[in-house]
Fold this sequence. Notes:
Blueprint (H helix, E strand, L loop, with lengths): L9 H10 L16 E7 L15 E2 L5 E5 L6 E5 L5 E6 L13 E2 L5 E5 L9 E5 L5 E6 L14 E2 L5 E4 L3 E6 L3 E7 L6 E8 L5 E7 L7 E5 L5 E6 L7 E8 L5 E7 L10 E5 L5 E6 L8 E8 L5 E7 L7 E5 L5 E6 L12 E2 L5 E5 L8 E6 L7 E2 L3 E3 L3 E5 L8 E4 L2 E2 L3 E5 L2 E5 L9 E5 L2 E4 L5 E3 L1
Parallel strand pairs: 30-38
Antiparallel strand pairs: 1-28, 2-3, 3-4, 4-5, 6-7, 7-8, 8-9, 10-11, 11-12, 12-13, 14-15, 15-16, 16-17, 18-19, 19-20, 20-21, 22-23, 23-24, 24-25, 26-27, 27-28, 29-31, 31-35, 32-33, 32-36, 34-35, 36-37
Amino acid sequence: MSLHVYRCSQISIRFALATLVAAGLALAALPAVSQTVTVIKTFSQNGGIVYPLILPPTQGRDGLLYGEDFGMPNNSIFRLNLAAKGTLLYTYSDLNAQHIFSGVMLARDGAFYGVDPFGGPGRTGALFRLTRSGQYTELHVFQGGSDGSDPVSRPIQADNGILYGTTHSTLYSYSSGDGYKLLASVDPQAGSNIYNVLQGADGNLYVVAIGGGTSSCGAILKFNVSGTLLSSTSFNCKEQGVNPIWLVLANDSNIYGTAAAGGNSDGRASGTIFRVNTDGTLTIMHTFQGGKTDGAEPNVLTLGSDGMLYGGTVAGGTLNAGALYRISTDGVFTLLYSDRPSDALQSQGVVQDTNGKFYGFSTNGGSGYGTFYSLDVGLGPFTTLQKYQGKVGNSVDILGQGFTGTKSVSFNGVAASSFSVVSDTYMTAVVPSGATTGNVTVTTPTGTLTSNKVFKVNQ
């Protein structure tokens, strides 16, 4: 089962969340493309981590990966290193969130934020904060009605430092200064079952509505950061696809995403990859055929350090059990891996670590309790930034590895006015006078690391 089941009703969302762990990932090598999949860890019932959730994990400032575990009776958040040695960081009780499904995001205060669709006394959902030491704080309990309920997708942190997120029918913000704010209640005809939110290159918020729109097959809604709806781009249930579920911002400043179904004249294909630009123009980049060549039912897209987009499908492939793929921003599609049931079943996607490799979890792979695996396509180490725009004098957080002994940091060739190495995997640098928009480079004792995306210098 894939995320597209959220398109139904609120009840369907709850059912989909409760059964999401039935999905996993299947992988097998195709010799035409140079890549390697390695199963790093096979989880067991006797281990600390059981049934890791299949959405991609998040890299922390400590270089570890943070994900969720569907261990019974309650969920946990765990962290582990790239050799799969890890610990449970926090286990939910009946007094707080206990069924998170969308992962956590790393904010610029160093803490992790997430949502639980069943959190709070009324089980209508909660927004929470979790520190690296395991301190859990419930920030807001959704009340239903105009406040919304059943938040499914983890929030994002925008360039202004404010968190933005969604429930099944609302858009909200949260900041330490102003707390929780309801920004917009979405008309079901404009979009229903709101999911993923993304900040575009124009500074506006783009929100996926899995249902609703003019044809009731989903829409991309564009809001400003104050919550005003600026435009809506609907899917036509046919060649454009059905049930958009994920968005990612690429280096060409366009937004790319996946629709879980549809894709031909009768809407019966196996999903699409699409591009939407800031004026709402929708372009189909790839239509999945559902067979051995490309997979079916795509989900999470990830931007790689090579500028290409990487993702997975939950069906199709050689044994109709899923596949991993990449696609360029000009539409060149490459199937990477498909169908190796001993590894996993069904792919929801991967995350790229700053060592250059991609990592993901399966739920039912291995002995039936999930696996942790890597996908190596030959990309080298790089750095990521916790924000990709700022003014001269702003401090920028940088994640990577091998920072100890760093010699210099540059913003598009201009040396940072100062920098501080906090650990081997985390450092900060100040945007210097004269800096212009471009990549950030860190010169370490072993070489130069370049940011995976351009940093925009604001005047």
